[in-house]
Structures are given as C-alpha cells and as structure tokens.
Design brief:
The complex is a heterodimer of chains A (about 350) and B (about 280). Chain A has about 350 residues and is of the alpha/beta class. In chain A, about 30% of the residues lie in helices and about 25% in strands. Chain A contains ten helices and 18 strands. Chain A has helices spanning about 5-10, 30-45, 55-70, 90-100, 115-125, 215-225, 240-250, 260, 295, 330-345; strands at about 15-20, 20, 25, 50-55, 75-80, 105-110, 130-135, 135-140, 145-150, 155-160, 170-175, 190-195, 205-210, 225-230, 255, 285, 305-310, 320-325. The longest helix of chain A has 17 residues, at about 30-45. Chain A is globular and about 65 Å long. Chain A starts with 6 loop residues before the first helix and ends with a helix. In chain B, α2 packs antiparallel against α5 (about 195-205), α3 (about 95-110) crosses α4 (about 130-140) and α6 (about 250-265) packs across α7 (about 270-280). Chain B is about 30% helix and about 30% strand. Chain B is built from seven helices and 15 strands. In chain B, the strands form three sheets. In chain B, strands 11-10-9-12-8-1-6-7-13 form a nine-stranded mixed sheet, with helices on both faces. The chains are: A alpha/beta (about 350), B alpha/beta (about 280). Chains A and B meet through α4, α5, β7, β9 and β10 of A and β3, α3, α4, β9 and β10 of B. β13 of chain A pairs antiparallel with β11 of chain B. Bound molecules: flavin-adenine dinucleotide (FAD) (2 copies). One flavin-adenine dinucleotide (FAD) sits at the interface of chains A and B. Chain B: This is Protein fixA.
Chain lengths: ~350, ~280
C-alpha cells in the first residue's frame, strides 16, 4: 500500500548535501555524504544537489567541480564577502533561503562543529526535524521517508528516527561513517549561481582572526590505513612509545580509549569512540583495550580488527577478527622485530 | 550582569546496561545526574560571577525529579533555579525543547534582563547539541557555539570577544550581548561547592513553572505534537565480526609473523606502503 504524501510535502524533491569548507579546504565528510546521497537518490529517482558557500568565486568554482566529480548533479553556489569565514548568521540565512526556494526533501550535513551549528539553526528556522550524528541512512519507499539511524546510550542501542510530516528531512552524519566515493572528473553537472543580497551591517558577529591548528593529528588518524589503539592496559604514558614505533613502521597512526586520554597519556584529538573519532582504517590493532561499546562504535568501520590483550576473556575478542592473548610488553616488541625483519629482507 | 545557564538532568549513561536477551534498556537503579557537559558551562558562569558579581539563574526543563540537578547547581553558587515541568512537554524533541526553553527565557527576561545564556556542548543522553543553537535562534540572540575561552567582555559597550573551536583551528570572534554560548568541555573542572552554598542549596526554593507560567499557550509547539522527529524502532547493534580467530602459541615472534603475514596478504597495498616507505 502506498501512502500518499501531503501535497504540501510532495513539492519537496531531491537530496542536498551541504559542502563544508574552511580555508578553501573541503571537509572529507562532505564527499562521504555525496557518495551516500547518490545511493539514496537512485531509490527516490531524484537529483543530488550540493550547496557551496564562500567568499571567493575561484575557490567556490573549484569546489563545485569537485562536488560534481563526487556525485552532485546540481551545485548551488552563493559567493559573497559575508560568507568568507563561517559565521552562523549569514550561512543560516543563505541556506534557509535556498531551501525555501528549491525545496529539497532531504538535507544532509556533517556532524562537525561547523555543520552542527548550521544544521540546528536552519532546522529551527524551517521548523523541521533534525536527526543528529547518524550512522546509517536508508529510504522507506512506501512513504519516501528518510530513516536515519543513530547510536543512543553510548552506542549500546541504535534508534531509527523519522521526520514524517515535515520537509526537508534533515540529518547530520559523523565523519568517517561512509566511505569517500571515487571521484569521476568526466561527470557532468549543472552549476546555479544564486544571487542573494546581504547586508553585512546586520551581522553583529565578526570573525577577527583564525588560529590554525598546526597539529593535524585528528586528520591523520582519519586517513591512516593502519591505526594502533592503546588502552588502559598500557599502564603508563611511556609505553605508548612502543605503539608509536610500531605505527611508524606500518605507516600508521596511534589512537586510544577515553581513559588514556583522561589520564593524559594521549592527546584528546586521538581519542576513538562515541565521544571521540570514528575511524575506518584497513587495519585496527587494539592493544590493552577491553572493548567497551563506547570504544567499539568508533572502530566498527575498520577492515580488520586485531585485539591484543592478556585476558583471554576480554570482551574485545568477541568483536575482533583476529586475537592474540598476551602481555603487550612481549607482543608489541616482537611485532616490531617482525616488521623490521620484513623491511630489511 | 544576568547569566542564565541551561542544564539538563540525564541518566548516568556509564551505568546503563542493555538487557542481553531483550535488547531493552535497564534503567532501574541508574542514577540521574546533572549533564556533565553543563558543569563546564556552569563553571564559566561562576567565573563571570567572580569577576562581575553576575546574577546566575539555572533553568531546566524536565520531570519534577530534575529539581535535584538544579539544587546541585545552586550548591555550586547559582542564585536562582527554575524548573520548567509540565506533562504537556513529554516527548519533546530538540525543536520542541528549544521552543519551551525560549518561552521560559522570555519570561525570565521580562523581570530580569538577560545578558548571556550558557548551554553545554551536548548532553550524554540525547547527545545532539541542537538545543542551544535552537534557543538562540528563537530568541534572536547572537549564537556562539563551541566557545573555548571568553577573552574579554566589555559590559558597558555590550561587547564580547571569544575563541571558538572550529574543525581546523580556533576562530577569534567578536560579538554582542545578549548572546548564547555553548561551552566546550575544557580543562577547568567545576569548583567544589562551598559549605554555605551547600546549606543554602538544601533550603533554597526551586521555582516550578508549568507551561502557562512560561507563557506557552499554543500546545501544538510542545511535547510530541510539536516534535517533527519520530522515534521509529530501537534495536541492539549487530555484532558482524567475532569471535576473533585466535592465533595461539608460546612464541610471541611466531604469533606476530603469522599475524603480519595474514594482514599483508589481505592488504597488499599496506605491505607495499610499508616496504616503500623505508627505502
Ligand atoms: C558517556 C561516555 C562516553 C564514552 N566515550 C568513550 C569514547 O569515545 N572512547 C572510549 O574509548 N571510551 C569511551 N568511554 C569509556 C568506555 O566506557 C570505557 O570505559 C573505555 O573504553 C575503557 O577503556 P580501556 O579499554 O582502555 O580500559 P579498560 O576497560 O580498563 O581495559 C583495559 C584492558 O587492558 C587489558 N590489559 C591489562 N594489562 C595488559 C597487558 N599487560 N597486556 C595486554 N592487555 C592488558 C585488560 O585485560 C583490559 O581488557 C565513554 C564512557 C561514557 C560513559
Ligand atoms: C536516544 C535519544 C536520541 C534522540 N535523538 C534526537 C534527534 O536526533 N533529534 C532530535 O531533535 N531530538 C532527539 N532526541 C530528543 C532530545 O534528546 C530531547 O529533545 C532533549 O530534550 C534535548 O536534546 P539533547 O538531549 O540532545 O540536548 P543537547 O542539544 O545535546 O543539549 C545541549 C545543551 O542544551 C541544554 N539543554 C538541553 N536540554 C535541556 C533541557 N531539557 N533543559 C535545559 N537545558 C537543556 C543544556 O545546556 C545542554 O548541555 C533524542 C533523545 C534520545 C533520548
């Protein structure tokens, strides 16, 4: 049985992704979302729209081309000096106006600090539903609705949230949840340059400066093929140097659980899990980690999970692909020797 | 200076267990606590009180039990506590919650002008981080999210300078009062409650407001009716891997070479990178 949608709602068509950029660099979550949007759009038989805002036409043009390569059919651009740096007011005004004009049925944003700010503001003005921090998105074809699934209670349960009688259906998605699609530079798309009138004087909040974070540990962690995670089982900060050595040999990065971050053994940026990062390396090696659900939600997307723990009953072994029971002080130095031997072969 | 801090009472999620068979949440005996992220906001407000002698109001929406969370906030040094509580609020999502909180703030502002509203970065139950921005938008307050540090406030000129965290660094932002800030969790943990404040908190009245007290007449904007999001199904995540294939033996080096062989076989690109990198 097909449920017919309120005609006011069926005017809304298409899936939009807000493309997040800072200092002319696009956040990878935007491409991840375009990949997912293409899959959802096929189900619905609609186009994928990308929304790009900025202060510089050249930068916005480059990003728009990339957006098409990553799967956008239409790019909605707004270029204005007021949009040079992210500010909640002008960005919200801009996105609200575009949505009102073009009426997408789904609007997706990254669950980053920038896009969470924007998404909550826009949803409030549009008086529509916004599901936060989703880890899965599917379409219910019976009523064309978006089923947005998110972890609750620290990841021990999942719940699916719907926005049935309001449009657009909005959701934010954590970085690292979906894979980045392969860009295709031969793809064709349309670019719409939207002219909006801004009154800079009406924007009270001004960006006076930007202090870039030279330390991009969190970015490297997201991109690494191999991540070695350390837990409380490491006993002390200095033992992390073993993990660092192994990570360096494998061309990987080091991450860890919340307790080791709280103990100051590891930088906060390297925390993996519910209140840290979601990573999707090819190989994740969990060392001295028990396998709490709050940690597991951050590593679910890894290709292969290896667990090293001296307790044969540690829960992590139930959620890993390969396990070694042993004291890390024996296992990790042995692994370092094995890899070194390989290299010098 | 009048500062309002939004606080929520939440179940202590570190103590929540999921029933292994039914996959339902076992809430029984799980203590309710003041949302840990709100303590960072409260501490920032107390710092303003130290400097400017600000008047601090704490506001919460929730069931009557949430009074305990407000009393906790009073014990740290807040001056007044208001609990917005009404059956009609049950089932509110973030849009409906921000509507109700905004109405209460308007009411508070009518008898004591509000300069700053503080909210936490997020809660540990709903965990959306959407309520703070929603409230700011509804009241037309300047919105400053993920504030790491308040650098300067010029109360005469109603100016404020803050550092807020963005994905790639720190934005230095100037803005104006009245504003709403969501406060990042930082290093400054909450101070200890002083004995006089603890005694005061035990006795201090917590004002309980129903929806009419907050001036909410339109019930279509609150509770389930005012919530565009609908919770569909709740289910336990599937374990798609494990139990792990164990590599067993007494010789760590042997175990590790088996492991490394396996990994390199499955991911030749990783092996290639390892070998190339060193040459
Ligand atoms: C709201 C909330 C959010 C949270 N968010 C996160 C999050 O984002 N990320 C996160 O990781 N956690 C998070 N947690 C914490 C989480 O619940 C767990 O407490 C945490 O993941 C456990 O860390 P651990 O595995 O390092 O420590 P433990 O649970 O103490 O495990 C240590 C392990 O090391 C093993 N071990 C000990 N000695 C050795 C040895 N010599 N050799 C080998 N193994 C050894 C032990 O057998 C044990 O299994 C959160 C909790 C809450 C309540
Ligand atoms: C498991 C679960 C998932 C949910 N998912 C969604 C969702 O995806 N979308 C959605 O719209 N709703 C969702 N909700 C509903 C949402 O949690 C409630 O609306 C809740 O009242 C406020 O949202 P929050 O807990 O996410 O707060 P957040 O937005 O994370 O809170 C941020 C700050 O706002 C202030 N604040 C929040 N709530 C209150 C309050 N009641 N009183 C005073 N101050 C407050 C605090 O300062 C807090 O630190 C969900 C609820 C649960 C239990």
């Amino acid at each position: 049985k097909k449920v017919s949608l309120d005609p006011r709602l069926s005017e809304y068509r298409g899936i939009w992704v807000f493309i997040e950029q800072e200092e002319a660099k696009v956040h990878p979550v935007s491409w991840e979302l375009l990949g997912k949007a293409c899959v959802l759009a096929k189900f619905l038989g609609v186009d994928v729209g990308a929304v790009v805002f900025g202060g510089n036409q050249e930068v916005v043009d480059t990003i728009s081309k990339d957006a098409i390569a990553y799967g956008a059919d239409i790019v909605y651009q707004v270029v204005d000096p007021s949009l040079a740096d992210y500010r909640s007011d002008p960005f919200t005004e801009c996105l609200v106006q575009l949505v009102k004009k073009y009426k997408p049925e789904i609007l997706l944003l990254g669950a980053t600090s920038l896009s969470r700010d924007l998404a909550s503001s826009v949803a409030t003005f549009l008086e529509t539903g916004l599901t936060a921090d989703c880890t899965e998105l599917t379409i219910n074809l019976e009523n064309r609705s978006l089923e947005a699934t998110r972890p609750t209670f620290g990841g021990s349960l999942l719940c699916t949230i719907l926005t049935l009688n309001y449009r657009p259906q909005m959701a934010t998605v954590r970085p690292g949840v979906f894979p980045i699609p392969l860009p295709n530079t031969d793809r064709k798309g349309m670019i719409i340059r939207e002219q909006l009138q801004f009154n800079e004087a009406s924007f009270v909040t001004k960006v006076l400066g930007f202090i870039p974070d030279p330390y991009k540990a969190s970015e490297r962690l997201s991109q690494a093929d191999v991540v070695i995670g350390g837990g409380r089982g490491l006993k002390q900060a200095s033992h992390f140097s073993l993990l660092r050595e192994l990570a360096m040999l494998l061309g990987g990065e080091v991450g860890g659980t919340r307790p080791v971050v709280q103990a100051g053994w590891l930088e906060a940026e390297r925390q993996i899990g519910q209140t840290g990062k979601t990573i999707r390396p090819k190989v994740y090696i969990a060392v001295g980690i028990s396998g709490a659900v709050q940690h597991r939600v951050g590593i679910e997307k890894a290709g292969t999970i290896v667990a090293i723990n001296n307790d044969p009953n540690a829960p992590i072994f139930d959620y890993a692909d390969i396990g070694i029971v042993g004291d890390f002080l024996e296992v990790i130095p042995a692994m370092i020797r094995v890899v070194k031997n390989k290299i010098s072969l | 200076m009048h500062v309002v801090i939004l606080v929520k009472q939440v179940p202590d999620s570190s103590q929540i267990r999921v029933h292994p068979q039914t996959g339902t949440i076992m809430r029984q005996g799980v203590p309710a606590i003041l949302n840990p992220y709100d303590l960072f906001a409260l501490e920032k407000a107390l710092e303003l009180k130290d400097v400017y002698g600000s008047f601090l109001t704490v506001l919460s929406m929730g069931p009557l039990q949430a009074e305990a969370a407000l009393r906790k906030a009073l014990s740290y040094g807040a001056d007044e506590a208001i609990l917005l509580s009404d059956r009609a609020f049950a089932g509110s999502d973030t849009l409906a919650t921000s509507y109700a909180l905004a109405a209460a703030l308007r009411k508070i502002d009518s008898y004591r002008k509000i300069d700053i509203v503080f909210a936490g970065k997020q809660t540990i139950d709903g965990d959306t981080g959407q309520v703070g921005p929603g409230v700011a938008r509804r009241l037309g307050l300047q919105l400053l999210t993920y504030v790491q540090e308040i650098k300067h406030i010029d109360y005469e000129k109603k100016k404020v300078l803050v550092h807020r965290k963005s994905e790639k660094g720190i934005q230095v932002v100037s803005s104006q009062l009245p504003c709403l800030m969501t406060i990042l969790d930082g290093n400054s943990s909450i101070r200890y409650a002083s004995l006089p404040n603890m005694i005061r908190a035990a006795k201090a009245p917590v004002k309980i407001w129903n929806r009419m007290d907050a001036g909410i007449e339109d019930i279509s904007k609150i509770g389930l009716k005012g919530s565009p999001t609908v919770v569909g199904k709740v289910f336990a995540p599937q374990n798609t891997r494990g139990p792990a294939e164990m590599i067993e033996g007494d010789e760590p080096e042997l175990l590790c070479s088996i492991l490394i062989e396996k990994l390199f076989e499955k991911y030749p690109e990783v092996e290639k990178e390892v070998l190339q990198q060193v040459r």
